[in-house]
């Protein structure tokens, strides 16, 4: 899932099996760029997405702030970057996304689909995210 700076979920994908995270990041950012007409200002994701190739690809797409944590032991320069205030703020913001995912599971039925096969699961997930976005419009327009 990808959300914009206002908290709306602007992109989601549901796939068969358990594909690796890293190759999915750049296409997701490209879809968000196509939908919104501009690249996102910040991209933050967990360690599964953190690769040097993703960092380079996101920089080529014009992103200014990239907060991808890396797996394994980082080098000295990477340690310095990950200790910077801006990186820590991005990391903390990502932790908040986990609460949004939990909220989607508890409130909007994304814990378990009631429809069969991948097509049914994609429909179920899309409807849950649509309902979430509708509720979010009501919350922020008060």
What's the gist of this structure?
The chain has 142 residues and is mostly helical.
Describe this structure in words.
The protein is mostly helical. The protein has one domain. 56% of the residues lie in helices and 9% in strands. The longest helix has 24 residues, at 117-140. The radius of gyration is 16 Å and the shape is globular. The two termini are 26 Å apart. The mean pLDDT is 92.
Alpha carbon gap, first and last residue: 26 Å
Q: Class by helix and strand content?
A: mainly alpha
Q: What is the number of strand segments?
A: 4
Radius of gyration: 16 Å
* String of helices and strands: EEHEHEHHH
* Strand residues, percent: 5-15%
Spans of 5+ residues with little confidence (pLDDT < 50)? none
On the 0-100 scale, what is the average pLDDT? Answer: 92
Helix run count? 5
Strand order of the largest sheet: 1-2
Helix content: 55-70%
Largest sheet: 2 strands, antiparallel
Shape: globular
Number of domains: 1
